[in-house]
From TrEMBL:
GO terms for biological process: gamma-aminobutyric acid catabolic process. InterPro entries: Ald_DH/histidinol_DH (IPR016161), Ald_DH_C (IPR016163), Ald_DH_CS_CYS (IPR016160), Ald_DH_CS_GLU (IPR029510), Ald_DH_N (IPR016162), Aldehyde_DH_dom (IPR015590), Aldehyde_DH_Superfamily (IPR050740). It comes from Jannaschia helgolandensis. This is Succinate semialdehyde dehydrogenase. The keyword Oxidoreductase applies. One of its GO terms (molecular function) is succinate-semialdehyde dehydrogenase (NAD+) activity.
């Protein structure tokens, strides 16, 4: 097979691959070349409503399959992902731009989520709780929540769906997924994979097209009991508001502004290594990306020197080319946003030590960039960069570092490099973040609960907690026994 075999140019609704009612389509482009690689249906309200109806119809039958039958389907799904890893990774790189090695990793972690949740579903245990009075028994049981709407972003178009779809399918929910318009094929491929391994018709539905219309149909449906979203905080807030009318359960994985704090006592090489992976993975387009390098004065200059050396050595290019470490940005808006951050920093006294401009490869390629002399007045102090720009702030004391790190409405991931164990514990207590990497710049893993606090979101993905988001808890009181 080749990646084109997974490039479904239709929507999956109730087991059928279909066009939009209007016949209208949307072009999908490769950000590395600007070439149109295909089209997808421009679906909307009617298509989404049909997908919800199909998921509602499929729910009771699927929920009532035995746990082992569901697990067996998930194991097959895992194997199908890994058997087709290279093709799915190429498809991801062609529509999104990230280096092929990163896409291979994304498909692999998606498969791991599937396996993890097939295992965790077997431990979705209830409880028998001691009752306060004799003759009474209290049982707590867990149940699939029902039909789940999933809206996913372009930056991890496969793995962001993986960690929603895997727990949902593991516990017996059915799914209506809406992938990002820029990168729809990796989402549609989940539909094709589910179909191939034998999930019943209507269990997985994938609709592309107008985000507003599709999400409105999801919001308006009483039958769709949960909405799970990864993307910007702005859209997340809209979805939380929209969910209120039918009181849906929500999971929101939203924006971040991760501080990457380096203390004088850090291992310099390790800190720079962590900074590189945290900052430049996916061209800086991850919600857990280091947004602010916050570096203690004693190690500041040495850190900047090594960071700049490593940044200048990065190979930029088409993600399909061998050895490329940074691909293009997703689109021109993303490029302009980074340019704006650079111009703002320059205006306010920052120094662009390397990069700072569009790459001579053209299109949406941007130079890996380091800015020093960053201050709280600069836009990136409070806004999410989502690009290959590393601003370096300086600090003196631990208290100051914690205060700077927390000075944002976001609270997704943060990182700190230190060799002082006591400090590591103090940081865990003081930093207002859902995830903390101590001496690690890459913390995403299926075994751990991924998610933020403050305006970075609600709920967890991965870990045992990631299953709870798709379960409802019931309490049964049995009296007179
Ligand atoms: N937390 C994260 O991982 C992500 C954070 N971001 C942040 O958001 C910024 C903007 O990126 P962007 O792609 O515009 O992110 P969005 O939040 O707009 O997009 C994410 C998903 O939401 C959909 N969507 C967009 N508008 C609505 C809406 N009104 N109602 C329901 N769904 C909607 C999109 O669909 P469609 O593609 O059709 O517009 C896509 O599927 C980035 O620069 C970054 O800062 C972005 C992506 C991921
Ligand atoms: O950017 C995101 O929304 C998720 C990041 C996943 C990862 O760290 O691999």
């Amino acid at each position: 097979m080749a990646f084109q075999d997974w490039m479904k140019q239709a929507n999956l609704i109730g087991g059928d691959w279909v066009a939009a009612d209007s016949g209208e389509t949307i072009d999908v482009t490769n950000p590395a070349t600007g070439d149109v690689i295909g089209t997808v249906p421009k679906g909307g309200k009617a298509e989404a409503e049909r997908a919800i109806k199909a998921a509602v119809a499929a729910f009771p039958g699927y929920r009532d399959t035995s746990l082992m039958d569901r697990c067996a389907l998930l194991w097959k799904l895992h194997d199908a992902l890994m058997d087709n890893q290279k093709d799915l990774a190429e498809l991801l790189t062609v529509e999104m731009g990230k280096p092929l090695a990163e896409s291979m990793g994304e498909i692999a972690i998606g498969a791991q989520y599937v396996r993890w949740f097939a295992e965790e579903a077997r431990r979705a245990k209830g409880e028998i709780v001691p009752a306060g009075v004799n003759g009474r028994r209290i049982l707590v049981t867990k149940h699939a929540i029902g039909v789940v709407g999933m809206i996913t972003p372009w930056n991890f178009p496969s793995s962001m769906l993986a960690r929603k779809i895997a727990p949902a399918l593991a516990v017996g929910c059915t799914v209506v997924a809406k992938p990002a318009t820029a990168t729809p094929y990796s989402g549609l491929a989940w539909g094709a994979l589910a179909e191939e391994v034998g999930f019943p018709k209507g269990v997985v539905n994938v609709v592309t097209g107008s985000a507003k219309d599709i999400s409105k149909a999801m919001m308006d449906s009483f039958d769709l009991r949960k909405i799970t979203f990864t993307g910007s905080t702005e859209v997340g807030k809209e979805l939380i508001r929209g969910s209120a009318d039918t009181v849906k359960k929500v999971s929101m994985e939203l924006g971040g502004n991760a501080p990457f704090v380096v203390f004088d006592d850090a291992d310099l090489e390790k800190a720079v290594e962590g900074a590189m992976v945290s900052k430049f993975r996916n061209a800086g387009q991850t919600c857990v990306c280091a947004n602010r390098m916050i570096v203690q004065s004693g190690i500041h200059d040495a850190f900047v020197k090594r960071l700049v050396e490593r940044t200048e050595a990065l190979k930029v290019g088409d993600g399909l080319e061998k050895g490329v470490e940074q691909g293009p940005m997703i689109d021109m808006d993303a490029v302009e946003k980074v340019e704006d951050f650079v111009a703002d920093a320059r205006d306010k006294g920052g120094a662009v030590v390397t990069g700072g401009a569009r790459h001579d490869k053209g299109g949406t390629f941007f130079q890996p960039t380091v800015v020093t002399g960053a201050t709280q007045a600069m836009k990136f102090a409070t806004e999410e960069i989502f690009g290959p720009l590393a601003p370096v702030f300086k600090f003196e004391t631990e208290e100051e570092a914690i205060e700077m790190a927390n000075a944002t409405v976001y609270g997704l991931a943060c990182y700190a490099y230190t060799s002082d164990l006591g400090r590591a514990f103090r940081l865990n207590e003081g930093l207002q973040y859902g995830m903390i990497g101590i001496n690690s710049g890459l913390i995403t893993t299926v075994e751990a609960p991924f998610g933020g606090v403050k305006e970075s979101g609600l709920g967890k993905e991965g870990g045992s907690q990631g299953l709870d988001d798709y379960l409802e808890v019931k309490y049964v009181c049995i009296d007179g026994i």
